[in-house]
Design a protein that fits this description.
- The radius of gyration is 18 Å and the shape is globular.
- Helices cover about 45% and strands about 10% of the residues.
- It has helices spanning about 10-15, 25-30, 30-35, 40-50, 50-55, 65-70, 80-90, 115-125, 140-155, 175-185, 210-215, 230-240, 260-265, 280-290, 295-310, and strands at about 20-25, 90-95, 130-135, 160, 190, 220-225, 245-250, 275.
- It has an eight-stranded parallel beta sheet.
- Strand 2 (about 90-95), helix 8 (about 115-125) and strand 3 form a beta-alpha-beta unit.
- It has one domain: Metal-dependent hydrolases (TIM Barrel, Alpha-Beta Barrel), CATH 3.20.20.
Length: about 325
């Protein structure tokens, strides 16, 4: 996943506006990027998923994997991220707390951001950063109060959850208070589906587990993130069947997306899918989306229009 030369010109990059509906704290903060790779989970991910990237960057120590991330296009500062956004026509980036629970160490996986840190980035960016809260199902009441504060004090617009990291499913009863709170606040809940690249449980992230939630909460806007891979067909099924369920393609480069997902995105899913990078690089991810063999109307919808409509930007 080293930086790739784009066949898309700078003019073409700016022509269609974009919203990254799942960026990460490490994209705008070197401190958070470095902190990530002090954890067992992200060091393991670096050795497996990003092993080739580390080798090409000449990085030998796993705790130094952040250097390889910078080499592949991660900015590591809000100033540089905003300059890139301006250069390639990205109007907003969504930054959530990235709350994940370490099954090994029984604490938050390092690299997560606080509500007030994200609130600061929102203010510093003039609203170009869109905030997303996290949720801890082990501390339900405290988490709900924090989400309420995030929305009312800082203008957060969604919640992102990784239920598998807590060893729980998307339809576990400990998440129902969160779903009710998101309905009350009129904000979407974004939930990771598919495998976890880190050594965290993945069975609990099967897209079909969203089915019961969508039935119980038909007015709750649900966004299934990470493409659902390796259960892409089931991810498509959920988005196709339920009017209130959407999906984002973050965590995978557009050039490597499952062909069935691309066909769905270019057809019945055109108004149900969002572009996202998972912090893997705005420029490369946008250029690869623009290079996909899909209709111009699809590119506009997935890159920009759907996010603006659903997240009320």
């Amino acid at each position: 996943m080293s930086e790739k030369k784009s066949a898309i010109s700078p003019e073409e990059m700016k022509q269609i506006k974009a919203v990254d509906t799942m960026c990460r704290p490490f994209y705008v903060s070197l401190e958070h990027l470095q902190a990530m790779f002090r954890s067992y989970e992200f060091q393991t991910m670096a050795a497996t998923t990003f092993g080739g990237v580390l080798k090409r960057a000449g990085v030998e120590r796993l705790e130094d994997a952040w250097k390889a991330m910078l080499a592949m296009g991660v900015k590591g500062s809000l100033k540089d991220a905003m300059a890139e956004m301006d250069e390639i026509g990205v109007e907003y980036i969504f930054v959530d707390q990235m709350v994940q629970w370490s099954q090994r160490d029984q604490k938050y996986v390092s690299g997560y951001a606080t509500i007030d840190e994200i609130g600061g980035w929102i203010k510093e960016s003039g609203g170009k950063v869109v905030g997303g809260a996290g949720y801890n199902p082990l501390k339900i009441e405290e988490s709900l109060k924090e989400i309420d504060r995030a929305v009312k004090e800082h203008g957060f617009k969604y919640v992102w959850i990784q239920t598998g990291s807590f060893g729980l499913t998307l339809n576990d009863k400990r998440y129902y208070p969160l779903y009710a709170k998101c309905l009350e606040l009129d904000i979407p809940v974004c939930m990771q589906t598919g495998q976890s690249a880190e050594p965290l449980p993945s069975d609990q992230l099967h897209p079909m587990l969203a089915d019961e939630v969508a039935i119980h909460f038909p007015s709750l806007v649900m966004v299934l993130t990470h493409t659902g891979w390796p259960w892409v067909s089931e991810w498509i099924s959920m988005i196709w069947r339920h009017p209130n369920v959407y999906g984002n393609i973050g965590a995978y480069m557009p050039s490597s997306l499952d062909p069935a997902l691309v066909r769905f995105m270019d057809g019945p899913g055109r108004k149900k899918v969002f572009w996202a990078t998972n912090g893997l690089g705005l420029s490369r991810c946008k250029s690869e989306l623009l290079e996909l063999p899909v209709k111009d109307a699809t590119k506009k919808a997935v890159l920009f229009e759907n996010a603006c409509r659903v997240f009320k930007l």
